[in-house]
Structures are given as structure tokens and as C-alpha cells.
Amino acid sequence: MEDKNKSKKYKIKIDRNLCIGAASCVALAMKTFALDSENKAVILEEDGDDAEAIKLAAESCPTKAIILENTETGEQEYP
Ligand code: SF4
Predict the structure, then answer these.
(1) Domain count, the chain
(2) Which atom in ligand 1 lies closest to the alpha carbon of residue 22?
(3) Where does ligand 1 bind, in terms of residues with CB under 6 Å?
(4) Which domain, by its residues, includes 63?
(5) Is 14 among the domain residues?
(6) Which residue is closest in CA terms to ligand 1's atom 8?
(7) Could you report the per-residue pLDDT of 35-79, keeping only the tens digit for each?
(8) Local structure of 68: helix, strand or coil
(9) Is the keyword Iron assigned to this protein (predicted)?
């Protein structure tokens, strides 16, 4: 039996060319995203926060630099 809470829902990608360091993703999911020394977002842990928080964080990104792929279907879920 798989533990649903442990299986991560999203594979996360960050398009660093799009990221402008607005940090709203960090504010909404601070265990998942952080800013590096170039002020670009990096992933700390793909399942650092719950899936809803990660989705909200992606939606909050002004440049849509956060790409979420559903690990079950393999389909891009956002944007
Ligand atoms: S919200 Fe978007 S632009 Fe801002 S730091 Fe996160 S990925 Fe970069």
C-alpha cells in the first residue's frame, strides 16, 4: 500500500529564464521553493509543502515560471 500523503503529486520545473525573483512562490510554499544567490527560484523539495500550496505558489508566479507536471498522468497541469 502506498502512503498517499507521501507520494508527491507534482513534478516541478522552474524556468529560470522566466523567473524574476518575485518570491511569491517562496512566500506561499517556503519548504518547496527558495531563492538562490542569483535571486532565481530553486526547488528545495518537490513535496516540501502540500499539493494545494504548491499549486497556489505556481499560480502566484507573475511570469508563470513554475511548471507543474502531474506525476500520475505525466501531463502538464500548470500553466
Ligand atoms: S514566483 Fe515566479 S518569478 Fe517569483 S521567484 Fe517564484 S518562480 Fe520566480
Answers:
(1) 1
(2) 4
(3) 14, 19-25, 33, 41, 60-61, 63, 65-66
(4) 19-72
(5) no
(6) 19
(7) 999 999 999 999 999 999 999 999 999 999 999 999 999 999 999
(8) strand
(9) yes
